[in-house]
Design goal:
mainly alpha; 21 helices; two-stranded antiparallel sheet
Length: about 500
């Protein structure tokens, strides 16, 4: 009997206010007030539906549900169970836990607000709920013991349920943000911070996802600071769970793009550094998160700063992996040239020239897409390391040549002169002179070696004696080797070699 009543009578009215209960002398009418075309749409995790397009939960009016419950119980007491109150109480013993569970799951949990400022309004729901259980007491379903007060216990512990609901909603939102991320970026800048500020965050581009994630976390921490000890702990752990979800799920779900698209990898690096910075410099103090030892019953909470090294390490690992991929591409272009020997021959010029052009194009294009995304220091360090590999390897290739004809030297001078176009990647601002030598130690050495291809012998000796070649980190052995490769044996060459000591 209780199972039948629970399924066919109370199953609907205990879960939705879209029912109207009308009781007459011998008849109970339960009709739906829901629109015929009403539909419920739930976004599928992983779909491309925008998070802000998801419909909010339908509003639930507990008072309407409670009126329907009271009217139904009153009808049962006066009509089918009239004269048999003991049987109604026996049925209520089995039926009430089901009704209470339905009300908690479908009515009270939905009625709990997501804004702490509105928790005060929930006291009205608490009063209605306790009044309902009182009226359904000895003369109704026989709710006499404390174990029958499930609804009252639930509404009295609203702070805990608020934190649990907040945590669930936060994690769902972060999950949807990750699944629906389109990698759109926005520039963050902190112009009011002094250049030597210990916690200064550089201007760079971060994804909208990272911006929203930080907003969710800091908002939860702000609420935790004004919550009860139990609520503070739950909100704090919810904030940490959001961060853990991001660092665990985002790199996996977007692994292909992070590996193949440098600008997305750069933005992810910035996201992690921005989150780390936000954890070190919260927008407001959170005294409730630093529980004193004098309150052993309170939650034990630790600052978020312990996550900073973890996020920074992930940022460094992912960006280093992307840099290695780009360096590998450049290395493959250089390997395809087959060295710098015999560049004056018709069958060798296209291979060397094509390889150098591909190197210059790849690095300059990479610089164009990364300069508006990365912090200036990270960008210059990244491009400097890449150009340094190119400059050092080309310099080594030239110095390894032991015999360079006049035609070959002219060809080498022309080809290597094009590599100087790489200096443009270090010009990060309009009107700024590129300081290539600061970021590429081998740059001046490559320029001097290239210039030597078009110098007379006396010019090379003069540059050596004036120290211009020494300033470019060229040793006497390297300069003497270049002289031997460029000029045939003669008394002048022998005299010049003696001067280069």
């Amino acid at each position: 009997l209780a199972e039948t009543l629970g399924r066919h009578v109370f199953g609907g009215i205990a879960t939705s206010p879209l029912w109207t209960v009308t009781a007459t002398d011998n008849h109970l009418s339960i009709t739906s007030t829901a629109p015929e075309d009403a539909t419920s749409t739930v976004p599928v995790p992983g779909s491309k539906r925008k998070v802000h397009d998801a419909p909010p939960p339908p509003p639930v009016d507990p008072s309407a549900v409670y009126r329907n419950l009271e009217a139904t119980v009153e009808f049962l007491r006066n009509v089918p169970f009239r004269g048999h109150p003991g049987l109604l109480r026996a049925v209520g013993t089995v039926l009430w836990p089901r009704i209470a569970g339905d009300v908690i799951r479908s009515v009270l949990s939905v009625a709990i607000p997501l804004d702490r400022a509105r928790l005060e309004d929930f006291k009205h729901v608490e009063a209605l709920t306790k009044a309902l259980e009182t009226r359904l007491g000895p003369h109704g379903l026989g709710l006499t013991g404390p174990e029958d007060r499930q609804l009252s216990k639930y509404v009295e512990d609203v702070d805990t349920h608020f934190a649990e609901k907040k945590r669930r909603v936060m994690l769902e939102r972060v999950r949807d943000l990750i699944f629906n991320a389109d990698h759109s970026t926005t520039v963050v800048s902190m112009p009011n911070q002094a250049p030597d500020h210990p916690f200064r965050f550089p201007t760079c581009a971060i994804t909208l996802l990272a911006r929203d994630l930080v907003g969710i976390v800091t908002g939860a921490l702000a609420e935790a600071a004004s919550s009860t000890p139990r609520g503070s702990r739950d909100l704090y752990e919810a904030a940490r769970s959001c961060l853990d979800l991001f660092r665990a799920l985002y790199p996996v779900h977007h692994s292909a793009r992070l590996a193949m698209v440098p600008v997305i990898a750069a933005a992810f690096h910035n996201d992690l550094m921005y989150i780390s910075h936000s954890l070190m410099t919260p927008p407001c103090p959170f005294p409730a998160l630093l529980t004193a030892s004098s309150a052993p019953s309170g939650p034990y909470l630790r600052p978020m700063a312990d996550l900073v090294p973890l996020f920074r390490r992930i940022a460094s690992e992912h960006w280093s992996s992307q840099c290695r991929k780009q360096a590998t591409v450049v290395k493959e272009h250089l390997d395809a040239m087959g060295g710098l020997t015999d560049t004056h021959l018709p069958n060798r010029t296209p291979a060397v020239e094509g390889g150098l052009k591909r190197v210059v194009h790849h690095i300059t294009h990479l610089g164009k897409v990364l300069v508006p995304v990365l912090p200036r220091g990270v960008y210059l360090t990244t491009m400097g390391a890449m150009v340094e590999d190119v400059a050092a390897r080309l310099t080594y290739m030239v110095l390894a040549l032991d015999n360079i004809s006049e035609d070959e030297s002219h060809q080498l001078y022309r080809l290597l002169h094009d590599v100087e176009k790489l200096a443009v990647v270090f010009k990060t601002e309009v009107g700024e002179e590129p300081h290539v030598r600061r970021w590429v130690p081998s740059w001046r050495k490559l320029l001097r070696v290239t210039a030597m291809m078009d110098m007379p012998l006396v010019g090379i000796v003069e540059h050596w004696t004036t120290g211009a070649l020494k300033e470019a980190a060229l040793t006497d052995q390297e300069v003497r080797g270049m002289v031997r490769a460029l000029f045939s044996d003669s008394p002048l060459r022998k005299q010049s070699l003696d001067q280069i000591r």
